[in-house]
Amino acid sequence: MRRRATLRTLGLATLAARTLGVAPMLGGCGDDEPPRDATITLGPWPVMPTARSIAIWCETDVAPEDAEIVGVGTAPFEAIADGLFLARIEGLTPDTEHRFVVRAGDATHEGSFRTMPERDGLVRFAIGADIHPDSAPYVAFDRIRALSPHLYLGLGDQVYADLDPSGMIPATRDGYEALYRRTWDDDALRACWANVPTLLVWDDHESWNDFDGTLDAERTEVARDAYERMQRSRSPSNEEWTVLDAGPASLFVLDTRTFRSPNVALDGPRKTMLGDAQLAALITWLETSDAPLRVIASPTPLHRYADTGLDAWAHGFAFERDVILRAIEANDPSTVLVVSGDQHWPAVVELPLPGGGTVLELQCTPTAAFFRGAPAPETLGPDALFVGRDQRGFGWLEIDGATAPPTISFAWIDELGTERFALVRP
Q: Which key words tag this protein in UniProt (predicted)?
């Protein structure tokens, strides 16, 4: 289901009212009741960044006042679903720090963001995955905020529906949404997301460990509804996947859960993690994008060391993985980079292409969750440039468009701010 259709389901009364030109009853007030002050439960957070625009997203029971970009102007919030509001601001200056203010009732909420650079500029990403309440406080987000990237890219498991500390597994959409609010009720995370634009995609734990097309339909539906509301509504795309231009880079953020065949199915041309439409869109993007650097963001790692069995590309979906690698190989692999999450240990791997040569894969996990055992050193080949152990943190990726090809600088920074690994290419 596309985001637009799902949000229409979530906010049917609101969107129908907007279509008919009547005032929706978002505040729950009758004609004789005074309007209530807005209480913002999530946000306001900057999302959908471009070189000249930004959107401000928030969850609240009543529409807040206009979003103000200090020194630039204001923009009204519009309802995108029941209790979700988005304000879009255009006409900004590339690669410029801006401060915004949102007033809701007696409260004033402030934040900041930096617009994306032009194509010949330097773009900075923080990349992470995995957020679990047992790892609170989420101090890695303090480090991310201090570095002021253009974007935080979250590659899945932003909540753990199947491993919630309460021991309860959500059974309704409201239960899933409450899980998001509890998991994200962290000062460091909220301060970071108020000052760094975010782009999030789900992985398995937003529903169930290693979930695929065999999961109970009702559980899948309520988990998806909550994901669409809390994460996908902050994406600029109406498809399940997202393409985002970011200075010298173009990002293709994959959805590796929505279209997934059963993990236990026999591997071959009919088994898919992406589905026909998403795979075709990825290949077309590889063939046609003229960005100096193309970044494929996959919550599920492509490299051979991923040890989650048939859930992983290399062990359960190798046929489709090879289709992707051949498409990369045919379209200037020197301008392609892969970033991934999932494994709960960070890594940098040279991903081999079918005809020789490699593509760099940066695995950036966990950011604020438990550790898993990384592969033993004796099992690693020379293609594994770095494997971290017991290190929460994030990937820091800089892409400099002033050089041809762009210079790539990457570091794995732990939650205390220590750089554990770094490389520069070319």
A: Signal
Handedness of CA 249, 258, 162, 305 (dihedral sign): negative
Q: What CATH number should be reported for the domain whose range is 116-425?
A: 3.60.21.70
Which 8-state DSSP code applies to residue 203? -
Report the pLDDT value the prediction gives residue 267, as an integer from 0 to 100. Answer: 98
- Per-residue pLDDT tens over the stretch 200-214: 999 999 999 999 988
Distance CA 310, CA 210 (A): 9
| Nearest partner of 92 among 111, 65, 73, 112, judged by Cα | 73
Question: Which positions of the chain have pLDDT values less than 50?
Answer: 1-34
Identify whether the C-beta of residue 253 lies closer than 8 Å to the C-beta of residue 152.
no
- C-alpha–C-alpha distance, residues 79 and 273, integer Å: 33
Q: Select from 13, 17, 20, 15 the least CA-distant residue to 4.
A: 15
Angle subtended at Cα 129 by Cα 153 and Cα 172, rounded to the nearest 5 degrees = 100
**DSSP H or E segment with residue 411:** strand 407-414
Q: How many CB atoms lie within 10 A of CB 121?
A: 18
Q: Looking at domain 1-115, which of 2.60.40, 2.40.160, 2.60.120, 1.20.120 is its CATH number?
A: 2.60.40
Distances (CA, A) of 356 to 21, 286, 326, 330: 59, 18, 11, 12
Rg of the Cα atoms in the chain: 21
Q: What is the pTM of this model?
A: 0.92
Phi and psi torsions of 73, nearest 5°:
160, -165
DSSP 321-378: HHHHHHHHHTS-GGGEEEEE--SSS-EEEEEE-TTS-EEEEEE---SBS---PPPPGG
pLDDT in tens, 137-147: 999 999 999 99
Task: Say if 1-115 and 116-425 have the same CATH topology.
Answer: no
User: How many Å from the N-terminal Cα to the C-terminal Cα in the chain?
Assistant: 40
**Domain residue spans in the chain?**
1-115, 116-425
Beta strands of 40-192 (E only): which ranges? Answer: 40-47, 54-60, 67-69, 73-75, 78-81, 84-89, 97-104, 107-114, 122-128, 151-155
- Identify the residue whose tokens are 């929460």: 392
Strand partners, 419: 413
What ranges in 150-263 are assigned the alpha helix state H?
173-183, 187-193, 217-230
Interatomic CA distance for residues 116 and 138, integer angstroms: 26
